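User: Last request for today: this protein with iron/sulfur cluster, please.
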Amino acid sequence: MSACAANPYRDRVPCSLYLHLAFCRHRCRYCSFLSRVMDPAERHAYVTALCSEIRALERLVPAVLPLVTLYFGGGTPSLMTADEAAQIIATVEEVFGLDPGAEITLEVNPGDTAAEKIRDFARVGVTRLSVGLQAAQDRHLAYAGRDHTVADYHRVMEAAGRAGFASLSSDILYGLPQQTPEEVAATVELALAAGSTHLSFYSLTIDPGTAFERLERAGRLAALPDEDTEREMYAVCLDLARAAGLRRYELSNAALPGHEGRHNLVYWRGEPYWAAGAGASSYLGGVRRRTISGIRHWMEHWLSPGADWTTELWEEEEAVDLADAMREFFWLGLRLAEGVGRERFRRLFGQPLPVALERSAAGLVAEGLLESAGTDGWRLTRPALDIANVVFRRFLLTEFDIH
Ligand code: SF4
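Assistant: Here's the final one, the structure of the complex with iron/sulfur cluster:
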């Protein structure tokens, strides 16, 4: 057994690192992710700052690593040059070590990524691409403010195939203004035909501060699909993915066997992880921390000579108490098709499942929202997939004492 798997709750050593690349070429109209438009010089400075932050993590890193997953998220990581990606990977390797079989994922925006760059990302060690298709209709892409076309997506997927990427994920956004279930079906079919081994499908939310929210407030946003239509779209994604042999392993993710996103599984299984980059969240030793989201401030700090951690770099810091971690075990773990189990709970927390949580699970089984998974656990039933939040809330509200 690896050192990663052998550590009990709180003392477990994270073997995953999330890196936030907070730059984009422009802002999409629905997006509330932390990022800013940057020119190449500023992007390069961001990469330098990120390497400085990664180096500062060194004194926290025990000798038992290497990392088994590394994730370049954003923002638009594909705006980096391959040399910049190589610089970051080399720094990570130096500080943490990287397992020879490590999964290294990079998010790609098809609008700004030339075929040669895809090949070079493979050359510098990236093993998996997550490509933002979103929709297979150029008019939806344009209305959402995406700066790519369906032809750009094809170009990137073909280049990825030629570069030898065995794991290719495509992101699909449903619930867009005036989108129909047939258009969502066409999007899923296109992503599958292009060689996706993994699909992530997310429903559009109108988040505060976005252009879509301003349009909605002004009554000028094109009509959104109603709730029933959105459910139908979700069912379309699941059905088409299943018909192509992709198994739904999480509420919004399906993959061919062996192509599940190992990095995101860490989050859903309640495992710890490192993080670096402006606004990035880590989970270390039972403490969740989020770095300041002031991108300029973050860059200035890490670009100054001898920069190190200071408490003012934490925008949020929360010690997750044990009872909350146990509740979280349910509401995160139930996102997964594998569900949650008593034995895994015992391994994770070193104690049996509290009676109150056992009762909550039994109540949800009686209501047809949970079913048995394996010999000792539970998973969501098909009807519960559409109302998963109702189930999660039940566990969040379950009260019990830890002795
Ligand atoms: S959706 Fe992606 S590319 Fe668009 S603004 Fe947000 S982070 Fe940038």
